[in-house]
Amino acid sequence: MEHFVFYLFASVAVVSALVVVSQSNAVYSAMALIISFGSMAILFFQLGAHFIAAIQVIVYAGAIMVLFLFVIMLIDPESEMLTTNRLGRLWLLALPASIVLGLMLLGALAIPFAAPPATGTGAGDVATIGLSLFRDYLLPFEVTSILILVAVLGAMVLAKKAH
Amino acid sequence: MVPTSHYLALAAILFTIGTLGVIARRNVIIMFMSVELMLNAVNLTFLAFARSFGQVDGQIFVFFVMTVAAAEAAVGLALIVMLSRRTGSVDIDRADTMKW
Q1: pLDDT digits (tens, 9 = 90+) for B6-39
Q2: Among all residues of chain A, which has the CA nearest to that of B35?
Q3: Which of A52, A65, A146, A153 would you mutate first to test chain B, the one with the most B CBs within 10 A?
Q4: CB-based contacts of B54-60 (< 8 A; 24+ apart in sequence)
Q5: Assuming Cys at both sites, which of A6, A12, A82, A155 could form a disulfide with B74, CB separation 3.0 to 4.6 Å?
Q6: Model ipTM?
């Protein structure tokens, strides 16, 4: 059952990733990316990372992709410019890309990684993550809040119309 | 239990698809979406190893990767809006003023 779920949502993730990369309409790509994020969230659940899976849906699929869609709509999707698409370069990349992918798959499948603990360690629930985040990783957490503040200010300054 | 290598292979495939998207597309918004795809593949790798080692640190790192990706998306999209206003299109090949 676990294997079936994994293969089903892994194929959904790969197919929607291919759709993201190949569409000429940016809105279709955004929708496919949302589907990819959703299936990745299910895979995260299966890995025992319950909190991260929920955050993936809320932040990635729910906030970042909405931002993407706002920007796509802002830059006038009707006009010709959003449909420029030339996959001609793709053929040049087929050989290097397949070599690199082959090396990565070799590393992934041939190295005997440690088997995960048979019983669920409960390492992905909110309490464990909260304890780790606010004890061991408190400084990065606080610095991240400053990072987000800077990003918000930067986005506001950059997107203002020049007078 | 699904072995760790399966998740890593899936992450490798998604990372390659994202890289091809960044290199082969000219639409700057779709390039940016491919970067998000690559970040997602890396998140999957981190979580696979977090489970494999039984530690929660991998998941903490994924938390920070997602936070940074959100901040980067905000600033990057603001830059894309500026770029499209300045060059009049989202085609990355049109932003060639610095080419000599």
Answers
A1: 999 999 999 999 999 998 888 899 999 999 999 9
A2: A21
A3: A52
A4: B54/A116, B54/A117, B54/A121, B54/A123, B55/A123, B56/A123, B56/A124, B56/A128, B56/A129, B56/A132, B57/A132, B57/A136, B59/A49, B59/A51, B59/A52, B59/A123, B59/A124, B59/A129, B60/A129, B60/A132, B60/A133, B60/A136, B60/A137
A5: A155
A6: 0.93
Residues A129 and B56 sit within 8 Å (Cβ to Cβ)? yes
Measure A58 CA to nearest chain B CA, in Å: 11
pTM, full prediction: 0.90
Torsion of CA A90, A95, A97, A100, to 10 degrees: -170
pLDDT of residue B79 exceeding 70, the answer is yes
| CA separation for the pair B49, A136 (Å, rounded) | 19
Which backbone phi and psi does B90 adopt, to 5 degrees? -100, 15
Write the pLDDT tens digit of every residue in A86-125.
556 667 778 888 888 888 888 888 877 777 666 555 667 8
B26 at A interface, C-beta within 8 A: yes
